[in-house]
Amino acid sequence: MMHLEYKKLDYKGCHIDIQPDHKSDIPRLREMVTNNLNIKNPSKIFSERVKSGEYDDRSEESLEAEAKVVNALADLWHGEYSMNVLMLLSRAMQEIVDLKVK
């Protein structure tokens, strides 16, 4: 079992702290986080699929509706091609907090 804690720090932005139950899990966790948990920006994938003709049979309205959702999600990547899942989670959590606190 692992403990996951989210914090917003003024000087560093968002921070996610993961504490494994056993110190022996740390090297495996570090490897997993840094190498295996990157997620591509959905706007890049969508753009590649549109260019390849995958959406040619869709109506303009349907394409625009999907693009709107993709663009809303893509904002979390801040223009980056891919992002580590923990940073992505941190940004998503901050967006939720910002929406709820307003």
Uncertain regions spanning at least 5 consecutive residues: none
Please state the overall shape, judged from the principal axes of the Cα atoms. Answer: flat
Beta strands, count:
4
Strand order of the largest sheet: 1-2
Describe the structure.
With 102 residues, this protein is an alpha+beta fold. Helix content is 52%, strand content 22%. It is built from four helices and four strands, in the order ββαβααβα. The chain has helices at 26-36, 42-51, 60-74, 85-101; strands at 2-9, 13-20, 38-40, 82-84.
Give a summary of the structure in a few sentences.
This protein is of the alpha+beta class and 102 residues long. The chain is built from four helices and four strands. The model has no long low-confidence stretch (mean pLDDT 80).
Task: Please outline the helices and strands.
Elements: E1 2-9, E2 13-20, H1 26-36, E3 38-40, H2 42-51, H3 60-74, E4 82-84, H4 85-101
Antiparallel strand pairs: 1-2, 3-4
What keywords describe this structure?
102 residues; alpha+beta; two-stranded antiparallel sheet; two-stranded antiparallel ribbon; 4 helices; 52% helix; 22% strand
